[in-house]
Specification:
It is built from ten helices and 14 strands. It is an alpha+beta fold. Helix 1 packs across helix 5. The protein binds iron/sulfur cluster (2 copies). The site of one iron/sulfur cluster has 13 residues, from helix 7. One iron/sulfur cluster binds next to helix 7.
Length: about 350
Amino acid sequence: MGYILTKEAFDKALKKLAEERRIYAPVLKVGEGRFTDTDVVRYDFVTGLSEIELSKKSDYAFKEILTPLSETLFFFTEDEVKTADRDPREVIVFLKSCDMHAVRRLDQIYLGNGIEEDSFYKEIRDRIKFVLIGCQKSGEDCFCVDMGTNRTTEGYLFSVDVVGDEIRCDVKCEECAKIFAECGGREEAVEPAYVTENATRVTIPENIPNSIYKSPVWDEYSVRCIGCGRCNFVCPTCTCYTMQDVYYTDNGKVGERRRVGASCMVDGYTNVAGGGQYRKTKGERMRFKVLHKIFDFRKRFGYDMCVGCGRCDMVCPEYISFSACINKVAKAVEEEVSNGSN
Ligand code: SF4
Ligand code: SF4
């Protein structure tokens, strides 16, 4: 089922949906970029269509709604624990196809990676629904086609494509269809736009021999990478976090426990008791990150973690390209295999 609406009619429908829900979407923040006079596209709560940036790729991922950078899980006293209150309203998140695929990776880690589901994540996840933003043009850093994430056909309430003065929506939710019809939408079959080619291409090696761990391919990153962790924080599939207990009292028995985002690229991530550190060089950290995204996760779950959104390439202050690194690894693997390494 599909609907074509004018921008005014779509805005009216959105406002109707927002009466009982919150809408979380990419927003162009003018002048709030990393450098003077630069803009940034990041997620925020919106109330209408005019606030949503539908054409540009967001610099930061939607994931902060599911896994906030800093989240109070519960409060504790000497003999009581109380979980933190949360806004009980449903949230509708606008995102592109690659990010829809990233949701599957987040669910895999928080809900399907062990005996127990993460109850804090689940509570938020159960209240979240998605709107698919059609992709009419590939970003220059995107490599979603090679990662198989360029198209999404289910899991969303409706899709949005701006074509001229009209909004075209593929609608999967009956309540939304009713609202679109009431707001003057014209019923017509719609297929969400998706890209079929990217300028950036990657070759994912199928099998990676153990010898790649000692390959010189990682050495350049020990020199170039400054370990800032930006690549992890913008990544829609990075899920690492750390715990912080914040005490309100001197006796250390009253306070709150927070879950805080962590990065495998920054100093301290692999510190262990006794002063040990597993991955000291940035090259070792890059190796861990890259192989996790394109090999280790697949070995465990059957599909790759990276969705090819290209955000890590966009944000790196040292112009380190993740996609270029994948291709260097693929070449190194080919050489190792032809040399008979295992
Ligand atoms: S590793 Fe880079 S390209 Fe892959 S999902 Fe994360 S941010 Fe996107
Ligand atoms: S953003 Fe670039 S410099 Fe910063 S940790 Fe990632 S790869 Fe290294």
